[in-house]
Amino acid sequence: MIKRLLQNNILLSSSSFLSLLVNIFSIPIISRIYSPDDIGIFFSMQIISMIFIPLIGLRMEIIFGQDIKNNTLKSLFTTTVFSGFVLSIFLFTALLLSNFFIEKFLFLDYIIFIFSMTHLIIYFEFGLGLLNRLQMYKFIAYFAFFNILSQRLLQIGLGLFMEDKISAIFISYCLSNFLLVITMYTIIKKNSSFFNISSFNLNVFKNYYDHIFYRTSYTLANLLKDRFLLLIIITLFSARQAGLYGQAFTILSIPVIIFSYPLKTIITREFVKNKSEVVKIIMIIYDLLIFTILPLYIFIYFHSSFIFTNLLGSQWSQISNIINIMLTPMFILIFSSSLDRMYDVLNLQKWALIFEIFFGILAFFNS
Predict the structure, then answer these.
(1) What is the Cβ-side half-sphere exposure of residue 316, based on CA atoms within 13 angstroms?
(2) Beta carbons of 170 and 42 less than 8 angstroms apart
(3) Nearest Cα to Cα of residue 326 among 254, 275, 252
(4) What's the Cα-to-Cα distance from 281 to each of 15, 135, 249, 268, 342, rounded to whole Å?
């Protein structure tokens, strides 16, 4: 059993490694196409999407990846998609109406992009959850890699030819997710009877109230630690400062996403039935990460000014100070991010929310 789990983790980690290479080679190009102001304005509007995603999708991709009855899953999927879409209409209508009171925000110019990106990301995550349930780890690896690859290529290509750089970033996210969602659901349909007609039934949520409330609240509380700070920076300082912070967070999030995602996938689908084997896999991976990533982070800390000025260009020279401040918490996040999925499979989402609020407040005031 542990051999099979290790093989699945290696498969997912291979995809993550390739994604890491894509980011390493693409970020220096992207940073020379887009200015800190472009990145800062995009990130400040992306926060709207990040707030709406858990409210609309209810983090149901986690439930979809678990071993539940097919009929329940079908009804849960149908109900989540339709109720979420209706809710999104009200949320975005409220967003439009708020523009009459807060005219200084630019989001009205990009409201269609924000709406499209929000839904496409939700459906992409739902698809990954369904593939996880079907134990189609090979396809999860493919889609995770091609999501990064297509986004980066589109950002570079569109950024070179489009004058509106912010629209170029939005289109790269939307187009990439749209193509992958269509492909993903076609594969799921061919390999299962999942998309047979299923009923819309709000009562199906009653067994998942704890997950919906605590996991959604947990995700929103998580914004307090990082993304919400962007709004404060862009409001009190400038889009450039927000761009520097946002790009620093993006760079340091790459190893967090890449190294924690394979473990999250395995934990979601396998932990309940194979606890001891999954724990062994976690220990093996953590040992490898400590002995490989920690020396790299120490090296980056002492040479960040030289590395990032040459890597990103002179307009990003101030980013090194921000990265040095964020290195330690982001290193810890590599390990804690994958383990937070334990709260879901053990139905302990309440404790996840409590800890997230506590650390979020701590991180916010320390910032």
Answers:
(1) 32
(2) yes
(3) 252
(4) 18, 17, 28, 14, 14
**pLDDT 10s digits, 18-66:** 888 898 899 899 999 999 999 988 988 888 899 999 999 988 988 888 8
The pLDDT mean for the chain works out to 82
Q: What is the CA radius of gyration of the chain?
A: 20
CA angle 145, 268, 50 (to 5 degrees): 60
Contact present, 99 and 108 (Cβ < 8 Å) = yes
297: Cβ contacts below 8 Å, ≥ 6 apart: 327, 331
Helix (H) / strand (E) containing 3: helix 2-33
Nearest to 267 by CA among 335, 319, 182, 206: 335
The Cα 216–Cα 211 span in angstroms is 8
Dump the DSSP string for 143-174.
HHHHHHHHHHHHHHHHHHH-S-HHHHHHHHHH
Tell me how far apart the alpha carbons of residues 329 and 258 are, in angstroms, rounded to a whole number: 16
CA atoms within 13 A on the CB side of 309: 8
3-state helix, strand and coil shares in percent for the chain, rounded to the nearest 5: 85, 0, 15
d(CA 327, CA 324): 5
pTM greater than 0.85 (yes/no): no
Cβ burial, residue 5 (10 Å; 0-12/13-18/19+): middle
Provide the token pair at 237.
Answer: 């300082």
